[in-house]
Amino acid sequence: MFSETTFTLLDDLARHNDKEWFDAHRDEVKRHLQEPFEALLEEVTAQLAGTEIPLKGGGQTMFRMNRDVRFSNDKRPYHEHVSGVLTPSGTKAEAAGVLYLNLDAHGGFMAAGRHKLNPKDLGPLRDRIVERPEQFRAVLDELDRAGLSLSEDLKLKSMPQGYADHADAWYADHLKLQSFTVRLGLAPGDWTSGKVANKAAKLAGDTAGLLRFW
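^ that's the sequence the OP posted. Answer follows.
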């Protein structure tokens, strides 16, 4: 279970991001960060089983804390967060919409949808919006009823190539998006109280239309 120790470790990792510290605290990291996170993914999986969005996750869908620094100017060896996904297949090799959870020293966040897409993957998504605008409107309405909206953190300033004819359409701004995600912040208390599992399952339900649209 997550505890105050969880956040103390994350804070210490941010201040001592080196192999010496990590090796000395490896067992604590496993006990207070990685194992509770794996259990969380399994709990959300159980909550979603039999629902319209039966996403699955566990240890196999967690991301490594080791960073690949080979081509980066930032040489810190470890991520200062713990993260993982729940996907339709229960693997990280997933092209469909996913539920992502991120735990850091300040709480973290969770997100649902498809993030930071490359042009090859964006084309079919944009085509689906153009071809099924009313279905896409229903997705946005569903999000709005839940008090949610698509993030605009990754968005082109102008219409993407090949879609200029849709510049006056009501969905034109959505064609500029490079991610189709909904994001919610989490506080430390969400993790230590155990509420994060219910919140994650609720987000999956509230974004069911978005996750199924593609």
